[in-house]
Amino acid sequence: MSSVNLYSIEPQELRLSAHLEINSAFIQDYRKSVRESQKRFWSRFGVTQSRGSRFELGATIPKPVMILLRLYFEKIISDDDILRVSQPHPPVRWPLVISLDRSGPFGSP
C-alpha cells in the first residue's frame, strides 16, 4: 500500500459527515425547523443578525464561520461548548514574585 493510500483511509463516520452540504438553504431550513430567530442562531457563531441574514440569502460565509457551522451541524460541538468559550472568564491571577533582596545584581555590596 502506498503512502498516499495510507492517508486517504478515514473512519466511516468522517466519510459520511463530509457529504453534509452546508449552504444558505440548509442553514435557513435548519434554523426555521428549530424555530430560532436569526439573531439567536447567528449570535452563537459570533455573527450579527444582519450579516447572518445575508449569509442565508447566499452571501459567501467566511471560512472560520463555516468551520464552526460544520462542527455544530455534525454535532462535534454543542450549544454548551459554544456558551462555555464565549462567556468572559475572570483574569488569571499569577502569584506576584517580588524579590525583597535589595542587594546589587552580584550579591551584597
Describe this structure in words.
50% of the residues lie in helices and 0% in strands. The longest helix has 11 residues. The protein is mainly α. It has one domain. The N terminus is likely disordered. The radius of gyration is 24 Å and the shape is elongated.
Counting structural domains, the number is: 1
Give the helices and strands as they follow along the chain. Answer: HHHHHHH
How would the global form be characterised? Answer: elongated
| Quaternary structure state of the chains depicted | single chain
Rounded mean pLDDT is: 80
Model regions low in confidence, pLDDT < 50 over at least 5 residues: 1-16
How would you characterize the largest beta sheet? Answer: none
Question: What are the salient characteristics of this protein?
Answer:
109 residues; mainly alpha
List the helices and strands and how they pair.
Blueprint (H helix, E strand, L loop, with lengths): L2 H6 L3 H6 L6 H10 L4 H6 L5 H8 L6 H11 L5 H8 L23
How would you concisely characterize the structure shown here?
By secondary structure, the chain is mainly alpha-helical. The protein has helices at 3-8, 12-17, 24-33, 38-43, 49-56, 63-73, 79-86. It has one domain (9-86).
